[in-house]
Amino acid sequence: MEPDLFTAAAEERQEKDPTSSPLAVRMRPRTLDEVVGQRHLLKPGSPLRRLVGEGGGGGPAGVSSVILWGPPGTGKTTLAYVVSKATNKRFVELSAITAGVKEVRAVIEGAKRAAGGFGKETVLFLDEIHRFSKAQQDSLLPAVENRWVTLIAATTENPYFSVISPLLSRSLLLTLEPLTDDDVRGLLRRALTEERGLGGAVSLPEEAEAHLLRIAGGDARRALTALEAAAGAALDKGEEGISLVTVEETVDRAAVKYDRDGDQHYDVASALIKSIRGSDVDAALHYLARMIEAGEDPRFIARRLMISASEDIGLADPTALPTAVAAAQAVAMIGFPEAALTLSHATIALALAPKSNAATTAISAAQQDVRNGLAGPVPRHLRDGHYKGAAKLGHAQGYVYPHDVPGGIAAQQYAPDAVHGKRYYEPTRYGAEARYADVVEKVRERLRGEED
């Protein structure tokens, strides 16, 4: 039997007993207007609107396949279902985790029979298409090319790397954005009041709602699943409202007092950086954990670590900045929950690294002099001498090419007269920077023409 998710029988059962299905299924939008978020895909005249027959034309010309690319819980399955309902087509769902070529062929044969016998077209929703091998994806091509099915494939990975070119070129690629807290909040409130949801059986105080938003992390399905569990627990206890304690008990995750848009956001971030600066690795990990558990953007944390690597460590450990940059790149590629491991790796390395703020104080002092007007003209021998007429102006005349000098350091003036002799960089003797402290004085002596 075909794995047809929304058969007529299933819909009939749901209509007779709405509570028989999970809340996330019951609250699934029935039209594009009920979809939360994805405003860029739902504008009048957009390809998605035209795909369901809105705006005339019956859908984008030449499109028999759609690829939905976005994070979990952003509405990929929902959009596929809405398309099938709006176009009055059969809806069949397969998951690339469990299905193979055999199952795909069975769906295609069923689609042919439905089209021939009943004149009903089929929407095949293939979840996690990136898990299909090249050969498995190839098996979809005849059905797409001959329009035996309307393929709607979903992926959380970049389709330019995970979907074969022939299929990608025949598809309309739609990119879904993460849902905002406002998007998820609106969905939660609808689920609380609508009859197909919880029908007003319980209320959701602000602090409990805020915790559910943190738990959700932009995932609508996760938010509704947590709400349903918390509501059930509250009703079992005879409570009229879902308390924060009930939410915590139900989802087994403590509420972190942390406002991503307010003081707590900046206070905890500040404490993380100051703990790293103070070399308290355990405190740093505590604040990192608070940010992670509160649903902080991992890219924000990674940016703070990159700044810390230069601001508080610098040349005392030249590997600190590459470590932080690598962590930021890894975080951007993998996201949570695995990104927590990468952020922990970088935080520990930075906290235990020798510290120096010499790079910070050096650029601060140099910038202050520039703001105070200590600039002046570039010395003539350092000016560009490649253009016609530069020699007549004396530009580049007298410049000594350092590579022609033994030791590679030529005794000549580089800074403008206004700051000549100024010392901005004062290296410490901590960690690897001790080597620079020994070198910099010798270099300055050579620049002044003083013999070793």
From TrEMBL:
Residues 1-22 are annotated as: Disordered. It comes from the Bacteria. It comes from Streptomyces kurssanovii. This is Replication-associated recombination protein A. Belongs to the AAA ATPase family. RarA/MGS1/WRNIP1 subfamily. Transmembrane segments: none annotated. Residues 62-183 form the AAA+ ATPase domain. The keyword ATP-binding applies. The keyword Repeat does not apply. Keywords: ATP-binding, Nucleotide-binding.
